[in-house]
Amino acid sequence: MEVSTIRDGFDRVVKKQKLSNSKSQEVIDHVGCEIRDALAKFHSVEDQAFNQKSILSDLKNKLNACGPHSMLEGVQKELNANIGKYMKLLEKYFNPDISKAYRNVDFDFHTVNKILVGHFYRQGLFEIGDCLVNEARNPEATELRSHFWEMHHIVEALRAKDIDPALKWVLAKREKLAVCGSNLELKLHRLQFMEILQRGTRVDALNYARTCLAPLASQKLDEFQKLMACLLWQDRLDSSPYAELTDPTHWAKFTKELTQQFCSLLGQPYESPLTVAVAAGSEGLPTLLKLANVMAAKKTEWQAMKHLPVPVELGKEFQFHSIFVCPVSRDQASEENPPMLLPCGHVLCKQSIMKLSKSSTRTFKCPYCPAEAAVTQCRQLYF
Amino acid sequence: MEIDPPASNGNPSAPAGSAAVAAVASAAAAAAPAASKMTQLTESLKLEHQFLRVPFEHYKKSIRANHRVVEKEVSSVISGVGEVADSADVSRDEAVDRLSSLVSRLQGLKRKLEEESRTEHLQAQRCRARLDHLESADSENLSDWNNTRLKRILVDYMLRMSYYDTAVKLAETSNIQDLVDLDVFQEAKRVIDALQNKEVGPALAWCAENKARLKKSKSVFEFQLRLQEFIELVRAENYTRAIAYARKYLAPWGATHMKEVQRVMATLAFKSSTECATYKVLFEPKQWELLVDLFKQEFCRLYGMTVEPLLNIYLQAGLSALKTPYCYEDDCSKEDPLSQESFRKLAMPLPYSKQHHSKLVCYITKELMDTENPPLVLPNGYVYSTKALEEMAKQNDGKITCPRSGLVCNYTDLVKAYIS
Ligand SMILES: [Zn+2]
To answer: Which PROSITE patterns has this protein been placed in (chain A) (predicted)?
Structure first.
C-alpha cells in the first residue's frame, strides 16, 4: 500500500487550504483597511467643506479595483485542483465501490442484530449488548447473557489469580467435563498449589495438597507425584527440575482451556462466529470483487449463481470441512461419487476410476505413478 | 494442497494437462506463506476507500462552505460601500455609521473564519489519523488491527441503522472515535428524526445545501419530499393551499416527472380515505419510511459511502466463501460460523463456494492434513491426520481406535494416502 503517495496528495490539499484561508484573511483585512482609512478621513477633516462624496467614491473605486474575487479565485482554483487529484488518487489505490460484490438478497437485519448482541456478550461488552437490545428493540437474550456473564466473571477472577469462581464452575460441571476427558479441576488445583508454594508457607502448601490434590491423585499419578516433589524445592523452585511449573503463562493457558470448555459445553464456538465470518469476508472480498467485475463485463447474472464460478482462497484457519476434489475430473467428491484409495496410495473419485478402468472391465495405470490397479483393489475413503 | 508421490514408485508419469496447471497454481499458493499474508493484507487495505473518503468529503464540505461565506460577505460589504457612495443625500454621521457597521461586519467574518479554520484543522487531522491507521497495519499487529476493523464495521452498521447510542458507546469504549464517522451521521440524524416526525424542513434544507451535487446525480429526493408535502395538504383537506403549493413546487418538476405529478394531482379529487389502490398507497404512513430510506441512500452516496452497511458486504462475502454443503450437516464443526442457525439463515440465498483443490481437515484435531501432517488411512477407509494417530498410538501402546466406527487396529496397519 502506497500510503506515502496518498499522504503526499493529502498534504498538498492541506497546504492549499491553508493558503486559501490566509488569502481570505488578507482580502478581508485589505477591504477593512480601506474602509477604516476612509473613516479616518471623515474624522480628521473638520472643515465643513470636506468632500464626503469624493472620499466615498474613492473608496468604492479602490475596492472595485482590487477585485477581491479575482484575488481569491486563483488560490481556490489551485485548491480545487488538488482536491480533485486527491480524490483520483483514492480511486486509483483503493477499490472505490466494494458493494459491487454485494448481492441484493434478503439480508434480515433482525438476524444480524441478534448475531451482534451475541457477539457483544461473548466479548464481555455487556453494556453495549444491552444498549443494542434496547435501541434495536431486539428480543432479549437473557440466557446467553447470563452464561457469558459467568464466563467473564471467571476469567476476570483468574486474571487476579482468584480461582474460586472457576472452581465453582468446574465442580458444577464435573460429570460433563469428565465425559470430554477434561482434567481442568486438577489443573486448577495445580495452579493454586504452585501459587501457595511460591508465596505462602510449606505447611500451607502441604495442607492444600492434602485436601485438594490428593483426592484427584488417581487421575494422574505421575503429575501428582511431581507436584509433591516440588515441596522439597520450595525456596529454589527456579533452579529445580520443576522450574517450568512456575511459568506464569500457565495461568493464561489455563484460562484459554477453560474458556474453550465453557463454550463447548454451551454448544458455542470458541471464536466469535461474527469475527470469523467478517475476517473470511475481508480475505474473500478482493477475489469476489474481481469476479464481479468480470461477470459485469460478461453480463452474467451475479445474483442467480448457485456456486461461485471461481475458488475464493481462505487461510487454513477457515477450513472447517474436508473437501476432496478429484485431481483427474476436478469434481468435488460426493456421496454418489466418493473418493477412492488406489493400492499405490493415490486417491481419485469413483467416477474417474470407472472411466479409467472402462467400467471396471480391466486393470488400469494410476495417472500419477506407474502402478497398475484393479477396481476391486480400490477402497472408499471417509475424511 | 500438494503431497509428493511416494518415492518407491519411481519416475511419475506426466499428469494430465489440467492437473499440471492446477499443480503449478497450488505450488505457487503454498510458497512463502508469510509473503502471501502480506499480499493479503495489502489486498484487504484496498477495501478501505470509504474509510479515507468520508472524512475527506466532510473536510471538503467545510472548505467549500467557508469559501461561499467569504465570497458572499466580502461582496456584500463592497456593495454596501457602493450604496453609501451612490446615495445622494447621506449625512456625514450616517455615512460614518454605515461604514463602521461594515467594518464590524468584516471583523465578525474574520472571527467566524478563524473558528471555521479550527474545524477544518480538526477535520484534516481526522483524515490524517485514518492514513496513520492504514499505515500502522503490519504482520505483527494484524490481529489487533483486524479487531479494530471489526469494531469500525460494527459502528458503521449501527450508524446506518440509526442505533446512535450503541454506536457512540462502542466507539468510546474502544477508543476509536477518530476512525468512525459519528459526527457525519449527526447531520443525517437531524434529517431522519424530523422525517420520522413527518417534518420535511430539515430534509429540504439539506437538499438546498447540497443542491449542485444532488442535481448532478439526478436525485429525485427533493421531488419526493415535495410530493409528500402536497399529499399532507390534501390529507388535511386544505385544497387551496395544496394547489398553490403544487404550482410553486411541483410544476418545475413537470418536465421530467409529468406522470408522477399527474398522479398526485389526481388525489385532489379523492379524500385520504380513498379505497382506490393507485391513490391509497400515497396516503400510507409507509411513504414516510420510504423517504427515510431514500434519504439514507442519497446521504451515503454524497459522502462516498457504500449504500449497504459495510457489515452486510463483509458478512455476505465471508459466508459465501465459507459456504459448503457440509456446513448444513448435523456434525458441522461448532467453530464454523455456519453451524449456527442465524448464520445459516443469512447464508441461505448465497452461492456455495467452489474448490479447485482438496482441503482435508482431520476429524480429530481439526487441523489441515497436508505435507507436514499427511493423512493416514485405517483398514476400514477412515482417514485421520498423522499427528492425531501418532499421539493416539503413543497413549495406547500402538493401538488405534477409530472415533467414528469404533474399529481397533495397530498403528502399523495404517497406510498413507497421497492427495494431489
Ligand atoms: Zn499411483
So the answer is: CTLH (PS50897), ZF_RING_2 (PS50089), ZF_RING_GID (PS51867)
Which of A56, A307, A318 is the closest to B84 by Cβ?
A56
> B58: alpha, beta or left, given left = phi > 0 and alpha = psi -120 to 50?
alpha
Does one domain contain both A337 and A262? no
Domain count, chain B: 4
Q: Is residue A13 part of a domain?
A: yes
Residues B299 and B190 in one domain: yes
Domain of B218, in residue numbers? 186-307
Q: Which of B71, B95, B165 sits opposite A56 (nearest CB)?
A: B95
Read off the CATH number of the domain in which B385 is found.
3.30.40
Q: How far apart are CA B312 and CA B319, in angstroms?
A: 10
Domain enclosing residue A378, as ranges: 321-383
How would you class A210 by CB atoms within 10 Å of its CB: exposed for 0-12, middle for 13-18, buried for 19 or more?
Answer: exposed
Q: Whole-model pTM?
A: 0.87
Q: Taking CA atoms, what residue in B is nearest to A20?
A: B67
- Indicate whether A12 belongs to any domain: yes
pLDDT digit string (tens) for chain B, length 420 residues: 333 333 333 333 333 333 332 333 343 344 445 667 788 889 999 999 999 999 999 999 999 999 999 999 998 999 898 888 888 788 888 888 999 999 999 999 999 999 999 999 999 999 999 999 999 998 888 899 999 999 999 999 999 999 999 999 999 999 999 999 999 999 999 999 999 999 999 999 999 989 988 999 889 999 999 999 999 998 888 889 999 999 999 988 888 888 888 888 888 887 777 778 778 888 888 999 999 999 999 999 999 999 999 999 999 999 999 999 889 888 888 899 999 999 999 999 999 998 888 989 998 888 889 889 999 999 999 999 999 999 999 988 899 999 989 999 999 999 999 987
Residues of A in Cβ contact (< 8 Å) with B351: 305-308
Cβ separation A132–B368 shorter than 8 A = no
The answer on A325 and A260 residing in a single domain is: no
Domain assignment present for A247: yes
| Residue A234 distance to chain B (closest CA, Å) | 32
